Amino acid sequence: MNISTIHSHAVGERRTYPGEETAQALIDFLNDPQTPRQSKRRIEQLLSESSRRQTAAEPVTRHMTEKMLRLLNIKESAKIPQALRGAPFLDRPRAGQDGAFKHASWKIASLLRAYRLTPIFFATVDGRWIIDWYTASKKTRSEATALLKALDLAARGLLSRVRKCKDPDCPRGLHPDSPSGPLWFYQGPSHNHFHSLKCQQHYFHSDPNQKKKHAAEMRLYRLNEKRRKERENQVW
Ligand SMILES: [Zn+2]
């Protein structure tokens, strides 16, 4: 039995949360010891660049845009500046993060550009098409699936929920064929940083300083969130 089998059973009957089902194939791909190293590395790169970009970005909210339009005294949509038409709510670089923002954007674009995908019509089930995706040359089929799931999550703003367990000793032989290194998981309402409760407990019990560090990180996160909200309310 491989990891994907174990995981799909674990979902069981309980309610799922947004993106969870989509993420499963991606998580399985990342945690499967059979996944070719290069394949895994490409998808991991995509995830890390996405998270770098997100750290360097701040959203331009509807609220901010509306305030700006009010400030400019623009009431009719016809008078909205050309640059804002079509995509008025694009993210922008955080102050001082211009370089990091652009670099991560460029990396994401170039990682994606390297893929050539071909849809393969496979069969139908109750009239629904079953389409499989093949990648050109050396890239594997499972990589194509993982990529498409990642793009699906990314389009819904959920890619940052795909995370690596924070416990450096994860997974400590949970599965006989477990990969080396911490497992990937999809962030849910009850688990933010660890793929399991066991890992969370291990992490905090193994080193009392970790608890302090974690608390400090969470404080910083909340402070950043607070500042972000304040910025949103500022008049441009
Ligand atoms: Zn873990």
Write the layout of secondary structure elements.
Blueprint (H helix, E strand, L loop, with lengths): L2 H9 L8 H12 L5 H20 E2 L3 H10 L20 E2 L4 H16 L3 E9 L2 E8 L5 H15 L6 E3 L19 E3 L10 H10 L1 H26 L3
Antiparallel strand pairs: 1-2, 3-4, 5-6
Helix pairs in contact: 1-2, 2-6, 3-5, 3-6, 7-8
The site of zinc ion (ZN) has 10 residues, from loops.
What series of H and E elements makes up the topology? HHHEHEHEEHEEHH
Tally of alpha and pi helices: 8
Q: Specify the biggest β-sheet.
A: 2 strands, antiparallel
Strand order of the largest sheet: 1-2
What portion of residues belong to β-strands? 5-15%
Tell me the helix content: 40-55%
- Described by the principal axes of the CA atoms, the overall outline is globular
Pairing-aware structural class of the strands and helices?
A: mainly alpha
Ligand types: zinc ion
Which spans of ≥5 residues are poorly predicted at pLDDT below 50?
1-12
Task: Quickly describe the structure.
This protein is mainly alpha-helical.
Task: List its traits.
single chain, 236 residues, mainly alpha, two-stranded antiparallel ribbon, disordered N terminus, binds zinc ion
Describe the overall structure:
The chain is mainly alpha-helical and 236 residues long. It has a domain at 165-236. It is built from 8 helices and 6 strands. Strands 1-2 form a two-stranded antiparallel ribbon. A hairpin with a 2-residue loop joins strand 3 and strand 4. Helix 1 (3-11) runs antiparallel to helix 2 (20-31). The longest helix has 26 residues, at 208-233. It is globular and about 55 Å long. The N and C termini lie far apart (57 Å). Bound molecules: zinc ion. Zinc ion (ZN) binds at residues 165, 167, 170-171, 182-183, 194-196, 199. The site of zinc ion has 10 residues, from loops.
